[in-house]
Amino acid sequence: MKKNIAIIMGGYSSEFEISLKSGNVVYDSLDKEKFNAYRIHILKDKWVYVDENNMEHPMIVEDFTTIVNGYKVRFDCVFNAIHGHPGEDGIILAYFELLGIKHTSAPSYQMALTFNKRDCLSVVKEYNIKTANSYYLNLGNPIDEDAIIKRVGLPCFVKANKAGSSFGISKVNKKEQLLKAIEKSFSEDDEILIESFLDGREVSVGVIQYKGGTKVLPITEIISENDFFDYEAKYEGKSKEITPANLTNVELSRVNEVAKKVYDVLRMSGFSRSEYILIDGEPHLLEMNTVPGLTTESLLPQQAKEAGINLTELFGNAIEMALKN
């Protein structure tokens, strides 16, 4: 009997339009012989099932069901395609866990931990994972520019702590740019992370739960036309993405080792895509994305394709793993 799969997309953050694109790719790619797929828009003003005629059916929040042609539809599994809040930070997943509905992401706590860049980096440092030097600020804290520069140096990056798709991030090359960059980050989040500039090659590594084990996908090297891998570079073609990355065997082995270790020590499941800077062959973790872009142009699907995994298999495997967990 076919399983009913709710593909949740949208969300409440600046990434909602990207999420809708990802969710629709998942919907189009799922094997309809195995699954009954439902597009569920989770938006600030409404939760609705959008049918094949683009008609909207309200979701019943008490049990996450909907009524279609007089019949109540229940879901066997939720495919999480929400970038940012409330999907990637684990909030909506805690709701599904309370309802006893399985989902394709890691448990809600792991999602919350990895979405919080500061907390995630603090945890992995205890496992000897290399990261940039960092300085933390909360909204309302006094801003000591000299202390920040003394800690992280120049140039540095100012980031919103809980935001994706490079929203709220700036590269600061001189002290005069620092306050404006901090204001930009605080427009996205009330916590920010300021990190030292790591001068090396940037690589992106997808790690997934696949057929019951942890699988590291082929690595992508990112060469941005801009000053760093910002929104334009990610989504508007302003970067060169080379999959598989042209790494030495030693570099390849080390990145695979660190990427798998980070995934396992954080007790992840489902999708992840992490960014590293390679300095003298040693990977330095920047961040982990647990609801990465899922369009055909996105990095993780590119990496899966290189590994011989098409979108139908990639998304179907995520559902099968979720149903077994």
CATH topology of the largest domain: D-amino Acid Aminotransferase, Chain A, domain 1
Helix/strand class: alpha+beta
For the largest sheet, list the strands in their spatial order. Answer: 6-5-4-3-2-1-7-8
User: Number of DSSP helices?
Assistant: 10
Give the topology string: H per helix, E per strand. Answer: EHEEEEEEHEHHEEHEEHEEEEHEHEEHH
- N/C terminus separation: 19 Å
Summarize this entry quickly.
With 325 residues, the protein is of the alpha+beta class. It contains 10 helices and 19 strands. The longest helix is centred in the last third of the chain and has 17 residues, at 249-265.
Describe this structure in words.
- It is a single chain.
- With 325 residues, this protein is an alpha+beta fold.
- It folds into three domains: 103 residues, Rossmann fold (3-Layer(aba) Sandwich); 145 residues, ATP-grasp fold, B domain (D-amino Acid Aminotransferase, Chain A, domain 1), CATH 3.30.470; 64 residues, 2-Layer Sandwich (Dna Ligase, domain 1), CATH 3.30.1490.20.
- It is 31% helix and 31% strand.
- The protein is built from ten helices and 19 strands.
- The chain has an eight-stranded mixed beta sheet with strand order 6-5-4-3-2-1-7-8, with helices on both faces. Strands 9, 14, 15, 16, 17, 18 and 19 form a seven-stranded mixed beta sheet that branches. The chain has a four-stranded antiparallel beta sheet with strand order 10-13-11-12.
- About 2% of the residues have low confidence.
